[in-house]
Design a protein that fits this description.
five-stranded antiparallel beta sheet, four-stranded antiparallel beta sheet, about 25% strand, 11 helices, alpha+beta, about 325 residues, single chain
Length: about 325
């Protein structure tokens, strides 16, 4: 259905852009295949006319929302016609300085996933054709910087599309403290990358609350479901704050850990105090917020939690769950 509508809108836009004179509804109805198939003469008169008028008005509004400037013109006989003048729908020249081109080049380098890399490369080629200075190479500018956002999870692409299209999804999810995955019904809001890991923020329908899911713990196939969102989608800034807080950024107290000397540099960067013990271990105080237990588990035997007791218990539970497979 979505593909059929997109094709219909594209054909309507081409008709309106390609005509030199205003086209009436009747002419558009007789020129666009989708309209002819749905509202041909054999479909019936009155009901067919009403249905066509409603669809045409929706299509016209959709094109205007997409930015197409459609003019409504009335001729001497009082008949209303429509057209989209090319001069009114022509984009202004694109001009980029060296810094802007470098920023686009860095953005194109970020993605390691093949399909996204191809899209980024194609976008830069179009910018080059649209006027990107020939002496500026966005791929070579600031070549010492090699940004990478790894995307190894197969769930990334279907989740990205579901977030874009606002489509509910179902997937199996294994919590760090659980041995088996559980089905989750989610209204996806946004994907965020935090400390090299991807997270999905959304509304968990079964629990009736917002939740954050780490993509590496999604098992099996992500499946879309029909219907609309039931919960309001928050502002993107709020979603980022939710992910950061869930993943451990919203710390409101301190934890004391023992860290093997020469290991755990990300933890050392977050530490508020470090004491060298001299026995191959250092003692650190780090901010303690939601999700810290999951982060500490990633350092394996190089970390021992000293306090608080609940954090130590959470880490032990996670390690046991990993050991059970």
């Amino acid at each position: 259905m979505a593909i059929a509508k997109a094709e219909r809108l594209m054909n309507l836009a081409l008709c309106l852009l390609g005509t030199r004179r205003p086209l009436s509804k009747r002419e558009l109805r007789e020129s666009i295949e989708a309209y002819m198939e749905a509202f041909g003469a054999e479909k019936g008169a009155a009901a067919s006319d009403d249905s066509f008028n409603r669809m045409f008005e929706r299509d016209k509004d959709d094109l205007r929302e997409l930015g197409l400037v459609i003019e409504t013109v009335e001729n001497l006989d009082g008949e209303v016609g429509y057209l989209a003048r090319r001069d009114s729908n022509r984009l202004p020249p694109i001009t980029l300085d060296a810094e802007e081109a470098a920023a686009l080049g860095l953005a194109a380098k970020v993605w390691q996933q093949a399909r996204l890399a191809g899209a980024a490369s194609g976008a830069l080629q179009k910018l080059r054709a649209a006027g990107l200075p020939e002496d500026v190479d966005p791929y070579e500018a600031h070549g010492a910087l090699e940004p990478r956002i790894p995307v190894h999870e197969v769930a990334f692409e279907p989740l990205m599309l579901a977030c874009r299209d606002r489509r509910p999804i179902v997937f199996d999810y294994r919590k760090a403290t659980a041995a088996r995955p559980e089905p989750r019904q989610v209204e996806p809001w946004a994907l965020e990358c935090w400390r090299g890991h991807w997270y999905l923020a959304g509304w968990d329908r079964d629990r009736g609350a917002e939740r954050v899911f780490r993509l590496s713990r999604i098992t099996g196939r992500v499946r879309t479901r029909p219907g609309k969102f039931t919960a309001e989608v928050p502002d993107v800034v709020t979603v980022r704050e939710t992910v950061a807080g869930w993943a451990g950024e919203g710390a409101d107290r301190s934890a004391r850990i023992r860290l093997r000397t020469g290991a755990g540099y990300p933890l050392r960067a977050k530490a508020t105090a470090v004491r060298e013990r001299g026995d191959g271990w250092d003692e650190l105080e780090i901010p303690y917020g939601h999700g810290l237990d999951a982060w500490l588990v990633e350092f394996g035997p190089d970390v021992v939690v000293l306090e608080p007791a609940e954090l130590r218990a959470d880490v032990v539970d996670r390690l046991r769950a990993v050991a059970k497979g």
